[in-house]
Design a protein that fits this description.
Chain lengths: 467, 212
């Protein structure tokens, strides 16, 4: 018999019951909750007269609707405010720990889970949010769920699921200077497509992945959902364990020793067999820029906007043509000639301390270009913000003409006041360039934090390696 | 949940790949704390020419006459025909809520994004995967025939065209059972209370830190 994949091990450790058709009841260790996808779930519990099965497994935070300025004044938009207040009330009623809007530990749900040690290796982690895949960076089985499933987990601590197929994406070699986890993620999506991972749980492996920091691995796993995968994960190693050690909710003392002993087994066996395998050479990956309205519409910064005449089939050609119209771009334009109006550095993909450091390092006393009307930095959490301020990064950003904001999802999806106006073009470190994602008619180009900072200074996309 | 057994539904073709849940229901409508009433804002940015906000009276908004859902021959459609990777992106269950509220009961596509696919079943919506060439053929037939309807039989797992062509589709037994009977998952899972308790007791011994 062949060995087990990391995914097999995680799956089996959480099996509660298996049905004859292969669907299974799996146990959920950690349930992260935010204000947008939970109100109807709590309402469902209330209507059925149910209480949470294990309230201690859940942690909540408002992040999507919170303002990134003048937070002391509360939320101006009454509908957003009601949603955040509803979360506060539900958490109080059902006994769930919540980091409220003005708590320094508040932040984007996928940033604070790992930061507080609520995300641990070997766990099943769910959240009513597709980017829950982020937590797979810890050798955890983490995936997004819908609101009915949020209610299901609250009520039963379990989910009905079926084991996905296992895919391994190997990135071998060494990444070049200026090439980051974000570029790796976009290059992978460019290679396999946004549906390439459908039906699979992806394990990212290979020497280039081992070489990534935990922040980098989170960026990569975060984007696994953009490749259509159910989950993304990276095996546990020393970096994983030292990142977790000492976090507020991490185990201590004898429990720590016991936990580490198990965590160290959370790797795919040498003879494990994957249903599908993809290999990329790290050296071949260049800084990436998306040009269209799907993350798979991506090219290297040195490239050009593609020509629909060269599309592989008719459906794709129509997609590319529509994307070019929406994006206001002409086929064959060099990426470096695309000028931008706004810059957004933030989101659960790229708002951790390492991301802010990378962006700040590009600035070096320069100023944002005059045609860039707004460049904003939105740290992923209050603690990331604090850390960055201790390092003086805020001053660097402000001196360069960037705005330094309070933590939240912000212009990643523009549910709060931060948004693009119709036709505005943005270099964003977030994860989705869908039509209207950052505001109706807004045009989003996904890039790494360093590339976003460089674009802010130049006023158009530039190759950060030559900047 | 409304059970799903048979449907003989008018088909509306949405000829785009990678339709994401941001397009199905834009973010501003996610601020609602309710589960219903999303239908008028289904595909809001494609359907209307102005910017929509929650709580607005949608009956007086300028509609986009080119968008397929606005065309008179597709009014009352219950089957949405789409291309690959339908429902990708955000996990928002507001997407199936909006489709269901609008009146869609089944979606046919060559592939669906995983979370969206899951969410459909929780809301009495049936996502049907058919081969890309079959879907392409259905697009052609829908365009060529006014009032094109498809018969869907969940028990038999078949889609039948007006000309009598029958296509089989797959659906997991558990999901089919829940959908046919309109059953809610939570009640079913709670039949396994003992197994869950037993799992927890065992896990507390091997991984006590998970229960701190
Ligand atoms: S930062 Fe963006 S992608 Fe991440 S959870 Fe918030 S809205 Fe979703």
């Amino acid at each position: 018999m062949s060995g087990q994949t990391l995914y097999d091990k995680l799956w089996q450790a959480h099996l509660v019951h298996t049905e004859t058709d292969g669907s299974a009841l799996i146990y959920i260790d950690r349930h992260l909750v935010h204000e947008v996808t939970s109100p109807q779930a709590f309402e469902g519990l209330r209507l059925a007269g149910r209480r949470p099965w294990r309230a201690g497994a859940a942690v909540a935070v408002p992040d999507h609707n919170v303002p990134t300025t003048h937070r002391d004044a509360g939320i101006a938009d009454p509908i957003s405010r009601l949603q955040v207040e509803t979360l506060d009330e539900n958490c109080a009623e059902f006994g769930i720990v919540e980091f409220k809007m003005n708590d320094v530990r508040q932040g984007i749900v996928h940033v604070i889970g790992p930061e507080q040690g609520y995300t641990l290796p070997g766990m099943t982690v769910v959240c009513g949010d597709s980017h829950t895949s982020t937590h797979g960076a810890f050798g955890a089985l983490a995936f997004g769920i819908g609101t009915s499933e949020v209610e299901h987990v609250l009520a039963t601590q379990c989910l009905v699921s079926k084991q996905s197929k296992a895919m391994r994406v190997l990135v071998e070699g060494e990444l070049g200077a200026g090439v980051t986890a974000k570029d790796v993620a976009l290059a992978i999506i460019g290679a396999i497509g946004t549906a390439g991972g459908t039906g699979y749980a992806i394990e990212f492996a290979g020497s280039a992945i081992r070489g990534l920091s935990m922040e980098g691995r989170m960026t990569l796993c975060n984007m696994a959902i953009e490749a259509g995968a159910r989950a993304g994960m990276v095996a546990v190693d020393d970096k994983t364990i030292s990142y977790v050690q000492g976090r507020p909710a991490a185990p201590k003392g004898a429990q720590w020793e016991q936990a580490v002993a198990w965590w160290q087994t959370l790797v795919s066996d040498d003879d494990a067999v994957f249903d599908h395998e993809v290999t990329l050479r790290a050296e071949a990956i260049q800084p990436q820029v998306t040009w269209g309205t799907s993350p798979e519409m991506v090219v290297a910064v040195t490239g050009r906007v593609p020509n629909p005449a060269n599309a592989p089939d008719a459906v794709k050609r129509a997609d590319w043509e529509r994307a070019l119209v929406y994006m206001g771009l002409t086929a064959d334009t060099p990426i470096s000639e695309i000028t931008i109006d706004k810059v957004f550095i933030g989101s659960c993909t790229n708002s951790r301390i390492e991301d802010l450091r990378a962006a700040a390092a590009v600035i070096q006393g320069r100023k944002k270009a005059a045609n860039v009307t707004l460049a904003m930095v939105v740290p992923g959490s209050g603690l990331v913000k604090q850390q960055a301020e201790q390092e003086g990064l805020d001053k660097l950003f402000i001196a360069a003409g960037f705005e330094w904001r309070d933590p939240g999802c912000s212009m990643c999806l523009a549910m709060n006041a931060d948004r693009l106006e119709p036709g505005e073009r943005c270099a964003a470190t977030s994860n989705r360039n869908f039509e209207g994602r950052q505001g109706q008619g807004g045009r989003t180009h996904l890039v790494s934090p360093a590339m976003a900072a460089a674009a802010a200074l130049a006023g158009h996309f530039v190759d950060v390696r030559a900047f | 949940m409304k059970p799903f057994v048979h449907l003989n539904g008018l088909v509306v073709p949405l000829d785009r790949a990678n339709v994401d849940t941001d397009a199905i229901i834009p973010k501003q409508f996610l601020k609602s704390i309710k589960r219903s009433g999303f239908g008028p804002n289904l595909f809001d940015e494609w359907r209307y020419l102005d910017h929509g906000e929650p709580g607005q009276d949608n009956t007086h908004r300028p509609v986009n006459p080119d968008f397929v859902l606005n065309q008179p021959q597709y009014q009352g459609a219950e089957v949405l025909l789409a291309r690959e990777n339908f429902g990708c992106g955000s996990s928002r269950e507001h997407a199936p809520w909006a489709l269901e509220d609008y009146g869609i009961r089944a979606i046919i596509a060559p592939s669906f994004a995983d979370i969206f696919y899951n969410n459909c079943f929780k809301n009495g919506l049936l996502p049907i995967v058919l081969a890309a060439d079959v879907v392409a053929q259905l697009f052609v037939e829908t365009a060529a025939t006014e009032g094109y309807r498809l018969q869907i039989d969940l028990a038999a797992q078949t889609v039948t065209t007006p000309a009598g062509a029958v296509f089989e589709f797959e659906v997991e037994a558990h999901r089919k059972h829940c959908l046919l009977n309109g059953l809610d998952d939570i009640g079913l899972t709670l039949q396994h209370v003992d197994a869950i308790r037993q799992y927890e007791a065992q896990r507390k011994l091997t991984a006590p830190w998970l229960f701190n």
